[in-house]
Amino acid sequence: MPRSKHSRARDGASAPGESSAPVAGPSSAAAEVHVVRPNGAGGPAGVLAASDDELWSLKTVVARTGLSRSSIYSYVELGLFPRQRRLGPRRVGWLASEVRAWIASRPL
What we know:
This protein is an alpha+beta fold. It has a domain at 31-38 and 51-108: Multidrug-efflux Transporter Regulator, Chain: A, Domain 2, CATH 1.10.1660. The protein has four helices and four strands. The protein has helices at 5-11, 58-65, 69-78, 96-105; strands at residues 35-36, 55-56, 85-88, 91-95. The protein has a four-stranded antiparallel sheet. Residues 12-30 have low confidence and may be disordered.
């Protein structure tokens, strides 16, 4: 039975012949940083100040730490990495200050 276009969009699958946005690999010049601000955080849209109250998405944490998604969640379970904060039913974020402190604590 064919799937509706809504179910494909919901679970991220694409039908044959459909193209998706290109994914930048490790060879990209600069890592794109996605910052999630808590509700009511100041500043105009598009202007992000590097402050400790930022919430980083998983994509940003992966880019900043160099760890894989599975390693991050494994380290969280072992108590070796800061816990994520629940932002919504299907969204989590990490406090930038906690991730920065973890990065600074790593041996060179």
